[in-house]
Amino acid sequence: MLGWVITCHDDKxxxxxxxxxxxxxxxxxxQAVSFWRGLSSNMLSRMMCHALHxxxxxxxxxxxxxxxxxxxxxxxxxxxHKHSQCEVISGISYPxxxxxxxxxxxxxxxxxxxxxxxxGGPEVSSLWHQQQKNPPFVLKHDLYEY
Length: 146
Known about the structure:
Elements: E1 3-9, H1 12-24, E2 30-35, H2 41-55, E3 61-65, H3 71-80, E4 86-90, H4 94-100, H5 109-120, E5 125-126, H6 127-133, H7 140-143
Helix pairs in contact: 2-3
C-alpha cells in the first residue's frame, strides 16, 4: 500500500485527513503535516521525515501538497530524491483525495502520480511532470567524450 503524507499550510492537511477518516475510518500509513507561519524549514523537514518513515511500507510514499513551490512542496521534493518510489503532488483538494483513496492499495507510485495528475485538472501537477518540462541543466563539456 502506498503511504500518504498530506502536507499543507495551516490546518488544511489535518482537516483533509480528519474528513477522510471520518468517512472511511482510520487510515493506515497516512499522516498529516501542517506548515504553520513561523515554522522553520528545519523543523518542517524533521516533521516530514518522521511522517515519511512512519508511512513507508516499502511500496512507496506520496507527498500530497497544496501549492507547488511552497515550503512543504520544496521539502518533499528534496526528500523524494533520496527515497525510491516517492512522488510529490501539488494542488491537491479533498474531493481529489477522496477519489484516489482506493488507488493506494492497487497502484504503483508512478501510476498513482499519473492518475492523480490526470484527474486533478490543470491545477494539479507533480514534481516528475515539472521536471519533464524543465530537464536538468547539463554542462556543455559533459556532452563531449574525452
